């Protein structure tokens, strides 16, 4: 079983293995108040991850080992995630009143018709979502299946760093959980909110639309911050490492903002508009109440305001830690700067309290 929906009582590190870095969050909780106990980000070598798949196992394992040392954590159990593109999900109706064992047996019987692989090749999990709207004798059951190789390579990378994967989740679900921490920023108390979360990664931008904090739509596009890095590298003749540092810390020529940064910001806005158009065309919704920008590519100065201006929709930069206390070993400024890119890691760390 994947472990996507299984309850875990032990503290888990939330570790997000993304295209260009590995990110770690450790949380504790007292009542309803969270505390960031540990946090770290460690860059990955180029091409260690290709299209969200681990291509260089040892390099990722080494980066994870450095990440744990940097975070100064002793926790060894981890929640990690796979991308939505790697997972098949399906809601099916089953008889109400079945035990977990009976449901599991029935799920395995049903899954064969929905999964285009041999069941021997996949990890499978399920969760009862509630009564079916069509029949009180039925329940809706969410099935989730992923190729075992996607799970095993993550387990192997973590093992190289002395870590154990206890939960493997879908990125969209981790993002959904972290979005629950944004309630005060998203009109706390308002009901029936529809929120578009735009996660701008290095090579992939993912739109997740949540209604009442439940994911109702996801779409991935091949677009991300690496395109800005590549343009800096091309225009100014910099090695890729220097281009990445300059993008984050500055020091580029005077024409950078006008000739490189502004066109990239315009391209981001076009991606957001296009993604929303696909969402509106796919169903019953014609607007969203908020746009939340997440991911490493979302922290560009002025991008939040530009997206709001061009879409006419209230837009904010994600920070799931705004109401959390911090351990003495956590750098508040660095955490605030990295916060938009830590949504998935934060949502994974929250699995400790399910």
Architecture overview:
- There is one protein chain.
- This protein is an alpha/beta fold.
- It is built from 10 helices and 16 strands.
- The protein has helices spanning 57-71, 100-111, 148-160, 171-179, 226-236, 240-249, 256-282, 303-311, 332-338, 343-349, and strands at residues 13-17, 21-30, 33-43, 49-50, 53-54, 77-82, 87-95, 122-131, 138-147, 164-170, 194-200, 205-211, 214-221, 290-294, 314-317, 325-326.
- It has a 6-stranded mixed sheet with strand order 10-6-1-2-3-16. Strands 13-12-11-14-15 form a 5-stranded mixed sheet, with helices on both faces.
- Helix 4 (171-179) packs across helix 10 (343-349).
- It is globular and about 65 Å long.
- Residues 5-9 have low confidence and may be disordered.
């Amino acid at each position: 079983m994947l472990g996507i929906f299984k309850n875990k009582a032990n503290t888990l590190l939330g570790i997000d293995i993304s295209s260009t870095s590995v990110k770690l969050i450790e949380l504790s909780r007292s009542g309803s108040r969270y505390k960031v106990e540990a946090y770290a980000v460690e860059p990955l070598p180029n091409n260690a991850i290709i299209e969200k798949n681990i291509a260089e196992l040892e390099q990722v394992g080494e980066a994870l080992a450095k990440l744990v040392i940097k975070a100064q954590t002793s926790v060894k159990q981890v929640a990690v995630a796979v991308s939505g593109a790697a997972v098949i999900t399906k809601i099916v109706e089953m008889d109400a009143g079945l035990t977990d064992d009976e449901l599991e047996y029935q799920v395995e019987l049903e899954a064969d018709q929905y999964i285009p692989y041999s069941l021997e090749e996949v990890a499978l999990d399920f969760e009862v979502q509630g009564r079916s709207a069509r029949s009180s004798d039925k329940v809706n059951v969410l099935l989730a299946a992923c190729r075992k190789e996607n799970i095993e390579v993550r387990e192997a990378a973590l093992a190289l760093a002395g870590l154990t994967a206890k939960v493997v989740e879908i990125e969209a679900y981790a993002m959904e959980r972290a979005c629950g921490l944004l309630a005060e920023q998203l009109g706390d108390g308002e009901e029936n909110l529809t929120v578009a979360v735009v996660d701008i990664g290095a090579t992939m931008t993912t739109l997740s639309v949540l209604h009442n904090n439940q994911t109702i739509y996801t779409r991935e596009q091949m677009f991300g911050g690496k395109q800005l890095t590549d343009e800096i590298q091309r225009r100014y003749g910099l090695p890729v490492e220097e281009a990445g540092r300059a993008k984050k810390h500055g020091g580029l020529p005077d024409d950078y903002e006008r000739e490189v940064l502004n066109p990239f910001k315009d391209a981001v806005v076009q991606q957001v508009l296009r993604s929303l158009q696909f969402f509106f065309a796919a169903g019953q919704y014609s607007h969203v109440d908020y746009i939340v920008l997440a991911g490493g590519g979302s922290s560009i100065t002025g991008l939040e305001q530009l997206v709001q201006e061009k879409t006419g929709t209230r837009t904010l930069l994600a920070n799931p830690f705004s109401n959390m206390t911090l351990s003495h070993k956590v750098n508040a400024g660095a955490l605030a700067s990295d916060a938009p890119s830590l949504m998935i890691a934060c949502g994974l760390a929250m699995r400790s309290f399910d």
